[in-house]
Amino acid sequence: MTVDAKESARRIERAGEILGRVRDEVGRAVVGQRAMIDRLLVGLMTGGHVLLEGVPGLAKTLAVRSLADSLALKFRRIQFTPDLLPADLTGTLIYNPRDGSFAAKKGPLFANLVLADEVNRAPAKVQSALLEAMQEKQITLGDETHRLEEPFLVLATQNPIEQEGTYPLPEAQSDRFMLKVRLGYPDRGEEKLILKRAGLAELPVLTARATRDDVLEARAALAGVYVDEKIQEYVLDLVSATRRPRDFGLALDTYISFGASPRGTLFLVRGAQALALIAGRPYVLPEDVKGIAPDVLRHRIHVSYEAEAEGIDGEEVARRILEQVRVP
Question: Which DSSP string do the residues of 98-153 spell out, in sequence order?
Fold first, then answer.
């Protein structure tokens, strides 16, 4: 093993230790939901934003808050409402009558972790302001452009059971989110622990287990996670199957209107690298790709009216593709 390879392996191992500490600390406040916590860490490592979907009370907000407390990063929560304005997110210029100057009043997007709570309750203008900051990592106030400090991560939540009075994210805009994570109910054992920990006692006070520099160091180690040629071909096969399912023996043509974009290909690889990094492993396994694929693909496979009529959504199509495409 060369000196560079040894150094890369050492950095990956240290990154895994850092992320393990953070995950354990978040787990002190959040019972279960291990997959959700790992997906939040994937977003943190890759810089990819995360959309959390689930009914109220599944600890979406608590998980994001706990992650921020465990990382000693600047955290802001924005409650999206129909009367919200873009300036409520980005900030605005304040006029000073004494000297006739304008000063920038920065909004809550100037943070490291931003929780966009119930993102589908704000109108399109507000959603666009958020998505622009997500994509460009900068905000323009007047004539001045302000770079957002890294790490910058938007963690948005939405409630799937109430659609009245909401503004669903357009499909092209939801593609900006690296992951769409769907949360389910806890099992009986987990819910009993929730009752003991949160219902019959106070939630634990979390302490920072990693600094901003630790996060940036772990991010830098991500590029050193090896992705074999066979893994790359597997990723390309999965994405191709969302566009040309017949090539892989899947009779899904009538169910798919549009398949995943090249952004989905990139996010599949980066997400698999991040899962390997969390495990402290210097290489990607097919299981890493299969593990992250549903979260990357479910909102990038746009189904037809025929599929909707049969109750088939992007997640179901992704599941069938993962079952059919050969694993290296």
Answer: TTTEEEEEE-TTSSSEEEEETGGGS-HHHHHHHHHHHHHSEEEETTEEEEPPSS-E
